[in-house]
Amino acid sequence: MTLRSLLLGALTEMAGAAVVLDPRLRIVERTQAALALTGSPLTLGALAPKLLCGESGARPIAEALAAGRAGVGRLTRLGEDGRARVLVVRAVPLGTPPEGWLLVLTPEPTDMAGEGAVSFHGIRTRDPRMKALFADITKVALADSSVVIRGETGSGKELVAAALHAESGRRSAPFRALNCAALPAQLLESELFGHARGAFTGAVRDYEGHFRMAHRGTLFLDEVAELPLEIQAKLLRVLQERTVLPLGGRDPIPVDVRVLAATHRSLRAEVAAGRFRADLMYRLRVIPLFLPALRERAGDIELLSHHFISQLGARGVRVVKGLSPGALAALARYPWPGNVRELMNAIEYAFVMGTGELLTEDELPPEIRGEEPGAIPLNDGPSDALQDLPSASELPKEARRLLQALERAGGSRERAAKSLGISRSTLWRRLQRYGLGS
Length: 438
What we know:
This protein has helices spanning 3-15, 32-38, 48-52, 60-67, 128-140, 157-167, 185-193, 209-213, 229-241, 267-272, 278-284, 299-313, 325-333, 339-353, 366-369, 397-408, 413-420, 424-433, and strands spanning 17-21, 27-30, 71-78, 84-93, 101-107, 110-112, 117-120, 123-125, 147-150, 175-179, 218-222, 243-244, 253-254, 258-263, 287-290, 322-323, 358-359.
């Protein structure tokens, strides 16, 4: 095997479809995957801007190359199979100032079942805000900046972190994830920074910890707002000095890790409350990304439901061809406080509990049908909304939905409003409209 073939193999393994340019922007190497994606010869010595920068007035890749900075652009090309496809082209400068360039090519997220649905690293959507987030991920992945992903529990923050890693130059190195809320402080410290043998009772061998295991890769810290203050101080030191000192260790160990963090809380609010260090927040929150809740992208509920049905059907337990109109309506009106994770669980519940080729409304979990048993009214204010009411059949659909939310929340207007995605004052006004509140 020649040196060139070895280098090409390494380039393919690291970057997939890739093109290497010299300082004059001429092609000096390209992988077979790049040839297949572009459907063009990518002749050695040819000027890359003519081949890979598009023909429209807006030419972000050509502009980035001219300016000596990283950039992202899109172009349409015919592949070897003759099919047109949109390619995302990412330009990465090699050195400062650039002594060459690496262009990485990836297909645009594929269209799924029409209606603008796309899949991006396992995240499925047809919502414009999610598609904008995908574009942001593609751009942010080029940098090595720290990122905080904001989103509610169950909305898919770890999938976003994994997508950032997969789109980055660290994709061939480890991706490690750690839930900061799942472990007590001492164990969490050991999991993050490692420990030396004998550092504490039970430490019978050296342990690297997640930072060292993620060396040259990405470390994802979920629920980072739950970190105890003493561990926040040690994490800040690691981020500042790029070294880690294991528990019981003597010498700092260099680490090269990109840190991604996630939280369902506002870090600024946590800082104001004295629960989170401001200096650590500024280290972590270089780039914030916001993940919409499922109730804010209602068009994804049916799309994701069918995806989960397809996954469950592959297990061979039950053949399901779709959802009944009643089931779709029930899924659409439920507020999904647990987001995509709760939807996945609800579909699995219906899949297991029911029979037949359609998932029906009566197979869904009781809380989604609005029939959760045993709810005890616990008013959190001067409200008689759950007492002396007309029968459900006498109320408009929206009024029944409001009452169902109150019942699920045990009478708490604050929790009911949050589950509906509205403010408490809006809930109060709507209850007043139907004569259900005081």
